């Protein structure tokens, strides 16, 4: 059972994991280096624990103690109870959900290991917006994608904003990073996947015509907001596919486009 510790000093070193949460550049560097990430809100904390992540500590306002009593009783980590105003001074923002947990990162699996057990994979190139990362992972989980592969410059799925937007779905879909981009796309192809590049280009095949749900193994490639997939990634694809647009709209936000494309890829897929 975790010990409840009341803290009234914002400079208390025990709260170090939670300092400066709004400093994006600092947290991007610090969290992977220190092997931690922050889960925010009761639902996300529970999902992280259920996914097997281990807790370093929790930071709660008093009113959340009862709601998380079962988690506290099982937690082998300190639980710091603080006034909401002090939580804001430590983190740099008003903690609306009243509960934060510092969790231990786990080593990422090798891409080859994920591909061996997958049939429907999302591959992201240079998606560096945390909101988009979170939205794509949420859609990937909801629509039955088996895994996600990230280029080296994609944003961190375990950054607080990504986790929050995904509602913890980042814990439900296994992911790995490709170290040598885009050469590692050949590894995906060699694992038996057909590479489909999602692009609004006029030379792309409409998704319905490509019929990705009928293919044995599909890797759907998604590019960054605005710029889309690079020329090198497009050249590496087996087929370029597009979502037909109406009313003069040329494209969708990458998060929305991913959801549409994931449905096309997984629709009618036999369930395990």
Task: Describe it.
The protein is α/β, with parallel strands linked by helices and 272 residues long. 33% of the residues lie in helices and 19% in strands. The chain starts with a strand and ends in a 6-residue tail after the last helix. It is elongated. Helix 6 (130-142) links the parallel strand 6 and strand 7 (147-150). The model has no long low-confidence stretch (mean pLDDT 94).
Brief characterization of the structure:
With 272 residues, this protein is of the alpha/beta class.
Largest sheet strand order: 8-7-6-11-9-12-10
The profile of the biggest β sheet is: 7 strands, parallel
End-to-end span in angstroms?
Answer: 38 Å
Mean pLDDT: 94
The proportion of residues in beta strands is 15-25%
Spans where pLDDT lies below 50 across 5 or more residues: none
Helix coverage percent: 25-40%
Class derived from helix and strand content: alpha/beta
The coarse silhouette is elongated
Report the count of strand segments: 12
Radius of gyration: 20 Å
Helix count equals: 11
SSE run: EHEHEHEHEHEHEHEHEEHEHEH
């Amino acid at each position: 059972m975790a010990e409840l510790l009341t803290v009234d000093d914002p400079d208390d070193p025990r709260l170090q994991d939670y300092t400066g949460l709004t400093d994006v550049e600092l947290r991007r560097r610090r969290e992977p280096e220190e092997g931690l990430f922050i889960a925010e809100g009761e639902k996300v904390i529970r999902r992280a624990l259920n996914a097997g992540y281990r807790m370093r500590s929790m930071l709660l306002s008093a009113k959340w103690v009862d709601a998380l009593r079962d988690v506290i009783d099982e937690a082998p980590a300190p639980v710091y109870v603080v006034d909401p105003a002090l939580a804001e001074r430590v983190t740099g923002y008003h903690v609306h959900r009243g509960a934060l947990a510092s969790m231990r990162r786990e080593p990422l699996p090798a891409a080859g290991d994920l591909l061996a057990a997958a049939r429907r994979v999302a591959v992201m190139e240079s998606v560096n917006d945390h909101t988009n990362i979170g939205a794509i992972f949420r859609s990937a989980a909801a629509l039955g994608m088996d895994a996600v592969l990230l280029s080296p410059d994609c944003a961190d799925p375990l950054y607080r904003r990504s986790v929050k937007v995904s509602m913890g779905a980042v814990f439900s879909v296994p992911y790995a990073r490709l170290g040598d981009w885009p050469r590692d796309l050949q590894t995906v192809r060699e694992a038996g996947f057909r590479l489909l590049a999602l692009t609004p280009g006029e030379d792309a095949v409409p998704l319905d015509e490509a019929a990705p749900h009928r293919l044995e193994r599909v890797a759907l490639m998604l590019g960054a907001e605005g710029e889309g997939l690079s020329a090198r990634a497009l050249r590496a694809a087996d087929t370029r596919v597009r979502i037909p647009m109406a009313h003069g709209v040329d494209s969708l936000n990458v998060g929305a486009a991913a959801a549409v494309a994931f449905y096309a890829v997984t629709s009618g897929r036999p369930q395990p």
